[in-house]
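Q: I'm writing a short explainer about NTF2 fold immunity protein of polymorphic toxin system component for a general audience and would like to include a description of its predicted shape. Could you first generate the structure from this sequence?
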Amino acid sequence: MAIDAYKRDGSMVVRQGLGQQLISRDTALAICRMVVADIRGPAECTAQEPLVVEDGSDVWKIRGSVVMKPDAVPGDPSPIEMAIAKFDGAIVSYFD
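A: Of course. Here's the predicted structure. Afterward I'll give you a sentence or two in plain language.
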């Protein structure tokens, strides 16, 4: 069965129509941690803790706790920011 990566199949269309959200706060947090660890490494993922999760209506907004220096330059530590769709877990924004 071939699945088009950019098109939802009938099962997801029905779930969306019923307003069923598949991604909990804890699941979004786990997704964020996995992605940050894959991209920036486990040590940088740990440095971002505690991650703060906010309810953004249709998305979970997750932000790292790293504090940027006022005179920061590219490459200096910065907080990650990610938004994950509650409906299906799509990462709709990611800044690091």
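A: For your explainer, you could say: The CA atoms of residues 37 and 43 lie 8 Å apart.
Q: Perfect, that's easy to follow.
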